[in-house]
Design a protein that fits this description.
The chain folds into two domains: 385 residues, ANL, N-terminal domain (Rossmann fold, 3-Layer(aba) Sandwich); 95 residues, ANL, C-terminal domain (GMP Synthetase, Chain A, domain 3, 2-Layer Sandwich), CATH 3.30.300. Helices cover 29% and strands 26% of the residues. The strands form seven sheets. Strands 15, 16, 17, 19, 20 and 21 form a six-stranded antiparallel sheet that branches. A four-stranded mixed sheet has the order 2-1-10-9, with helices on both faces. A four-stranded parallel sheet has the order 4-3-5-6, sandwiched between helices. Helix 1 packs antiparallel against helix 2, helix 2 crosses helix 3 and helix 9 packs across helix 10. It starts with 12 loop residues before the first helix and ends with a helix.
C-alpha cells in the first residue's frame, strides 16, 4: 500500500506480527503476571492457535472473543486475524440479552470465552447454534503451549488488505449495538497514521495495557502500537491503582494509554505521591473526554503530558491526536492525522462547511474509515454520505488546525431556544477545586423545553453546596447554560468501558 507521507504500512496486522518476530525474536512481546513471551514465542503461539481456528472453519467467517484482559486474549486476537477470520471482540460483562443480540448478528464460526464470562456464554451456545466454542484461562485452556515449537508457521494464505479484519460492536448506549466492519487495509493504515503522529522508539518501549482489550482504544494504543515498534506490552487484568504504580516501577513503563477515570483514580490514590515516573515518556488519553483540570494536575504531579486524541470505532479508530513535543492546548484533541480530512459542517444541513471557530458536526474521510455496519444498510447510508463519515460529534477548529470536541450531537440540549452543549458545562464544573467529578445533562422541562441538570461528586472533605456550584457556573457561563438544578452523588454511573453514562443520568 502506497502512502508516501506515512511510515511503513504493513499489508495486515498479521504481516506486522511476522515482521516483529523476524526482526526482534528475542525481545519481550507480552507480559501478564509472571508469564512472558518473546516475539518468537508470541508468533508461535499465535500460529498454533490460528491453525486450530482454521480447522474449526474460521477462515472467511468471524471469531467472537468474549474475554477479559489476559495473555490469552492478546494471542487469540492476533490468531483470529491470522486464521483469515474477522475478529469480533465483545465486552465480557455483557448480559445474556446483550450477548444474544451480538452473537445472532455476527454469526461466528467460533466463540472464544474465559472463566469469568462462562456462566453467561455457555448457556447460549446450543440455543444459538454456535458451531464451535473454546474456553480459555481458568477452567479452560492456556495459549502459550506452542511457545517452543520452532517449526510453526502462520497458516497460508495470509489475509489480504481487502479482507475483513474486525467486526467491532459499538457500545450501544442508545439502541442496540451495531457491528462496524473494518478491513485489514483500514486498520493497518490507521496504525501507521498514528505512528506518524505519535512516533515510538523501535524495540525500546514498555506499554501498559490496563484498558480492556475488547475495546478499540486498547487495541489501537496497546496491542497494535506495541507490536508495530516491537515493544513490550504489559497486560493488567483490570485497573487497580496499586497494580498500575507497581508495574510502572517494575516494568519501567514508557507509555501509559488510559481513559480519564484511570488518571483521576491514580491521582486520588494515597501512594501516588511516592511513585517514580522517570521512565514514562507519554500518557495517552482516549475513549472519553479528558477534563482540562485532570490534564493540568497530571502534568504538575508527574512532569509528563497526557496527549489526547479523538476517534471512534467507525473511524478505524483514530482521527486526531495531540503531538508529542508539540503545542498542548487545554481542551483540544489535537490536529488531524496524516492522510485524513476532517471538516466541521452545519448541524442542520450536514454539508455547509463552517469557518474556523464555527461549531458544528464533525465529519471525516480517509483510508481508515469503516466499510459500513454489518446487516445495517440504512444506518450505513446515514453514517457514510458522499465519502464522509458523519461522526455525530460536535466540534470546532481553531486557526492552527487544533480540533475541540464540544459534545455529542445527540447530547445537545435546547434550552429556551438556545443550543447548550453539556460538555462545556462539564468543563466549568471540573474547574471548581471542591468538585472531584461532574456531569451535566439536558432533561425535559415543560417551560423551556429542556434544562441543564448537573450531577456532582464532592472531593473528600469538601462541604460544597448547590448554591456554591451555581455561583461558580454563573461566573463562567451565560445565563441560559447555568444548570437549573444540582444533585450531589457518591459516584457517576459509567458504561462498561468507563465512560460517564449520560443516558443513565438523563433517565435518573
Amino acid at each position: 500500500m502506497e502512502f508516501p507521507g506515512l511510515p511503513l504500512v504493513h499489508p495486515t496486522v498479521v504481516h506486522m506480527l511476522a515482521a516483529a518476530a523476524a526482526k526482534a525474536p528475542a525481545a519481550t512481546a507480552v507480559v501478564f503476571g509472571d508469564r512472558r513471551l518473546t516475539y518468537a514465542e508470541y508468533y508461535r503461539c499465535i500460529a498454533g492457535f490460528a491453525h486450530e481456528l482454521v480447522g474449526l472453519g474460521a477462515r472467511g467467517s468471524r471469531v467472537a472473543l468474549v474475554c477479559g484482559n489476559s495473555l490469552e486474549m492478546a494471542v487469540a486476537m492476533f490468531a483470529a486475524h491470522a486464521a483469515g477470520a474477522q475478529a469480533t471482540p465483545i465486552n465480557p460483562i455483557y448480559t445474556a440479552r446483550e450477548l444474544t443480540h451480538i452473537l445472532k448478528d455476527a454469526e461466528p464460526a467460533v466463540v472464544i470465552y474465559d472463566g469469568d464470562s462462562a456462566a453467561v456464554v455457555e448457556p447460549l451456545l446450543d440455543p444459538l447454534g454456535v458451531p464451535a466454542a473454546i474456553r480459555l484461562g481458568e477452567g479452560g485452556r492456556l495459549l502459550d503451549g506452542w511457545r517452543d515449537d520452532a517449526g510453526l508457521r502462520l497458516p497460508e494464505p495470509l489475509p489480504r488488505p481487502e479482507n475483513m479484519a474486525t467486526l467491532q460492536y459499538t457500545g450501544g448506549t442508545t439502541g442496540l449495538p451495531k457491528g462496524v466492519n473494518i478491513t485489514h487495509r483500514q486498520m493497518s493504515v490507521n496504525i501507521s497514521q498514528r505512528e506518524a503522529a505519535l512516533p515510538t522508539k523501535a524495540e525500546d518501549e514498555s506499554v501498559l495495557c490496563v484498558m480492556p482489550l475488547f475495546h478499540v482504544f486498547a487495541v489501537a494504543m496497546c496491542l497494535h502500537l506495541s507490536c508495530y515498534c516491537r515493544g513490550k506490552m504489559v497486560i493488567l487484568p483490570r485497573y487497580r491503582p496499586d497494580w498500575v504504580l507497581e508495574t510502572l516501577r517494575t516494568e519501567r513503563l514508557t507509555r501509559l494509554p488510559a481513559g480519564p477515570t484511570v488518571f483521576i483514580g491514580l491521582m486520588g490514590y494515597e501512594g501516588f505521591a511516592e511513585a517514580d515516573f522517570s521512565t514514562l515518556r507519554t500518557a495517552y488519553s482516549g475513549s472519553a473526554p479528558l477534563p482540562e483540570e485532570t490534564l493540568k494536575r497530571w502534568r504538575e504531579l508527574t512532569g509528563t503530558d497526557i496527549l489526547e486524541g479523538f476517534g471512534q470505532t467507525e473511524a478505524g479508530p483514530v482521527l486526531t491526536y495531540v503531538r508529542e513535543g508539540g503545542v498542548i492546548k487545554s481542551g483540544s484533541v489535537g490536529p488531524v492525522l496524516p492522510e485524513t480530512e476532517v471538516q466541521i459542517v452545519d448541524v442542520n444541513d450536514g454539508v455547509t462547511v463552517l469557518p474556523v471557530g464555527g461549531i458544528g458536526e464533525i465529519r471525516a474521510r480517509g483510508p481508515q474509515i469503516m466499510s459500513g455496519y454489518r446487516n445495517r444498510p440504512q444506518e450505513t447510508a446515514e453514517a457514510l454520505r458522499d465519502g464522509w463519515l458523519y461522526t455525530g460529534d460536535i466540534g470546532e477548529f481553531d486557526a492552527e488546525g487544533y480540533l475541540y470536541i464540544r459534545d455529542r450531537k445527540k447530547d445537545m440540549a435546547i434550552v429556551g431556544g438556545y443550543n447548550v452543549y453539556p460538555r462545556e458545562v462539564d468543563e466549568v464544573l471540573y474547574a471548581h477545586p471542591d468538585i472531584a467529578e461532574a456531569a451535566a445533562v439536558g432533561v425535559p422541562d415543560p417551560y423551556r423545553g429542556e434544562i441543564i441538570r448537573a450531577y456532582v461528586v464532592r472531593r473528600p472533605g469538601s462541604r460544597i453546596e448547590a448554591e456554591d456550584v451555581l455561583a461558580h457556573c454563573r461566573d463562567n457561563l451565560a445565563k441560559y447554560k447555568v444548570p437549573a438544578a444540582v444533585e450531589f452523588v457518591a459516584a457517576l454511573p459509567r458504561t462498561t468501558v468507563g465512560k460517564v453514562d449520560k443516558k443513565a443520568l438523563r433517565g435518573a
